[in-house]
Amino acid sequence: MRIIMIASGDLWAGAEVMVYQLACGLAARTDLDLVVVLLNKGRLMEDLRAAGVKVHVVDETEHSFISLTHAVKELVSEFSPDIIHSHRYKENLLAWLVALGSRGIRLVSTQHGMPEVAGSRPGFGKRLRTNIFFRLLSCCFDRTVVVSREMQQALVGSYGFTAKDIIVIHNGIEIPQDVTCRSEGRIVVGSAGRLFPVKDFSLLVDIARYVIKQSHAFDFVLAGDGPEHEQLEAKVREYGIQDRFSFLGHVSDMDTFYQGLDIYINTSVHEGIPMSVLEAMSFALPVVVPKVGGFPEIVEQGVSGFLVEGRNPEKFAEKILSLTDIGRRRLMATAARQRVLDCFSREAMTRAYYSLYQEVVGT
Prior knowledge:
Layout: E1 2-7, H1 14-27, E2 33-38, H2 43-50, E3 55-57, H3 65-79, E4 83-87, H4 89-99, E5 106-111, H5 124-140, E6 143-146, H6 149-155, E7 166-168, E8 187-192, H7 201-214, E9 218-223, H8 229-239, E10 245-249, H9 254-259, E11 263-265, H10 275-282, E12 287-290, H11 295-298, E13 305-308, H12 313-321, H13 326-343, H14 346-361
Parallel strand pairs: 1-2, 1-4, 2-3, 4-5, 5-6, 6-7, 8-9, 8-11, 9-10, 11-12, 12-13
Helix pairs in contact: 1-14, 3-4, 4-5, 7-8, 7-12, 10-13
């Protein structure tokens, strides 16, 4: 079986981590030939090549969209894939265009999350683009993969999707081998992600303020960059908690980051199956997350972490404060790691995608 995977590669966020994990898993199979086509140079390109995955870069900064399409079409003609598997908006359009007129090429897309909305209701232009994007997937792709059952329920019956069109495959990660839980010092609560509105790190600052008022045992750290950095720093200064809340900026060594935490928190308005939460759990960290998106499919309430209803910072803070006891943290830490081992490994994700590919090509 011959697969071309198309991804942007401009960022290093959840979708890119998933592409890396899946590509590494597929490349290890001897009965599959994989080429990853990236539209940008960057960490994804470097990490894939270091892992021995075949990568072609067609740099979108050096091409118009028309010439980009021609360049990718040449690669497709040369490689003659059975399947093109694309990720994100532009890549899906590109996959469809380069497959036009090519007999036998099947199209698969992975939808990593629902469209990000900063306000209460998106504008007409954004709604139109979303409608066109999903109509393209429902009408022109053989399968659309979503990463959570919640996303599947949201899409089936909308935009022309049927239950046959959409399959759920949970994200998976490579499980770290050596993990030790912190046992001394202050309790460090951490989060990571793009500093964008959909991540709602402003809520994280509110939670930190409440926790710090209640206990002197906690510190907070936030890894990531983005347009809300200055606004968040200003809010931390306004609350007078800058000595207990640290901004780490971009962090390349996430393993060390997770190993320096006692608790992981996510405050997103919506998520599919976020890689950062899976990674945190694999490092034996109890997690505190909102009860939205795919989180209920990951976290067992009160066992591997806490699901919090609504967006009241005090409710999040109460769950964090309940983990002051190291014995309770360790019980949850063990359960969190086991949950990922059982259900969200790279091997399980790779097997599921390979089975989908076989179904799509009819083998």
